[in-house]
């Protein structure tokens, strides 16, 4: 229910993903609180294949927008699995290897008592070079 | 919460006790989708919810000939290697 921006963190000169709930019906205090606890849940996890949360904060309210919760996440440059597949079948070995990686990450989450509830190819993010996240 | 194509039957039924098995079911859907290019059930939201509860997916082994005809033997490689789970 959030939107994600590609953003530059000024102090550290790095690209991050910035996730927030925009205005409208989702900007009520209940969903803001839920959104914040979502960030806290992700931040509890430390796993090479689970996206890392850098920081949680709130925006300053102005005349247009009320204050909203946002959090910054590790930016993944390879897009989603859904985009990458684009409806095309992959070789069995590659498919198995991918899902093995996912299954291990999900097991880790389950061991922390966290259930994802919305696993899908659009929620699987890839890196272009298999970078540091995968090592 | 959830996306119909990836929902376990107990989620599609609107059950309130959704546990780890629902995530494992979704992993199975992702495996199917990666191998076949499409999720097992397609259609409008309500159709998919009904299919998830009432029907068995077409076995991948039966779809291999169709997939080979559509894409040839040289299946495209996924460009990316690193994988991260977003919540």
Short synopsis of the structure:
Chain A is built from three helices and five strands. Chain A has helices at residues 29-43, 81-85, 92-111, and strands spanning 3-9, 14-20, 53-58, 69-74, 124-127. Chain B has a single domain (4-86), classed as Transferase(Phosphotransferase) domain 1 (Transferase(Phosphotransferase), domain 1, Orthogonal Bundle), CATH 1.10.510.10.
Q: Can you walk me through this structure?
A:
By secondary structure, chain A is α+β, with helices and mostly antiparallel strands. A 4-stranded antiparallel sheet of chain A has the order 1-2-4-3, covered by helices on one side. The longest helix of chain A has 20 residues. The radius of gyration of chain A is 16 Å and the shape is globular. With 87 residues, chain B is mainly alpha-helical. Helices cover 49% and strands 5% of the residues of chain B. Chain B contains 4 helices and 1 strand. β5 of chain A pairs antiparallel with β1 of chain B, so a sheet runs across the interface.
Task: Please report which band the strand proportion of chain A falls in: under 5%, 5-15%, 15-25%, 25-35%, 35-45% or over 45%.
Answer: 15-25%
Please tell me the overall pLDDT of chain B: 84
Specify the number of helices of chain B: 4
Overall residue-averaged pLDDT value of chain A = 84
Largest sheet of chain B: none
Major beta sheet, strand line-up of chain A:
1-2-4-3
CATH class of chain B: Mainly Alpha
Number of strands of chain B: 1
Rg calc of chain B? 15 Å
Distance between the termini of chain A: 30 Å
Low-confidence stretches of chain B: none
Would you list the SSEs of chain B in sequence order as H and E?
HHHHE
SSE run of chain A: EEHEEHHE
The separation of the N and C termini of chain B measures 12 Å
Using only C-alpha atoms, the radius of gyration of chain A works out to: 16 Å
* Stretches with pLDDT under 50, minimum 5 residues of chain A: 130-135
CATH H level of chain B: which superfamily?
Transferase(Phosphotransferase) domain 1
Task: Kindly state the number of beta strands of chain A.
Answer: 5
């Amino acid at each position: 229910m959030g939107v994600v921006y590609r953003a530059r963190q000024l102090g550290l000169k790095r690209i991050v993903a910035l996730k927030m709930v925009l205005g409208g019906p989702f900007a009520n205090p209940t969903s803001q609180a839920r959104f914040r606890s979502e960030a806290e849940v992700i931040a509890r996890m430390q796993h090479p294949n689970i996206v890392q949360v850098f920081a949680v904060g709130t925006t300053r309210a102005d005349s247009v927008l009320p204050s909203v919760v946002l959090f910054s996440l590790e930016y993944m440059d390879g897009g989603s699995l859904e985009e990458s597949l684009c409806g095309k079948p992959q070789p069995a070995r590659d498919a198995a290897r991918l899902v093995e990686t996912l299954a291990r990450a999900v097991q880790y989450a389950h061991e922390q008592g966290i259930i994802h509830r919305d696993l899908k190819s659009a929620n699987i993010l890839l890196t272009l070079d298999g970078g540091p996240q995968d090592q | 919460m959830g996306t119909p194509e990836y929902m376990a039957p107990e989620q599609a039924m609107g059950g309130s006790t959704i546990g780890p098995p629902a995530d494992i079911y979704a992993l199975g859907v992702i495996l199917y989708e990666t191998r076949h290019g499409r999720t097992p059930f397609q259609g409008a939201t309500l159709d998919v919810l009904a299919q998830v509860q009432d029907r068995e997916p077409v076995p991948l082994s039966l779809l291999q000939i169709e997939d080979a005809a559509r894409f040839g033997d040289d299946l495209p490689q996924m460009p990316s290697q690193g994988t991260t789970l977003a919540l």
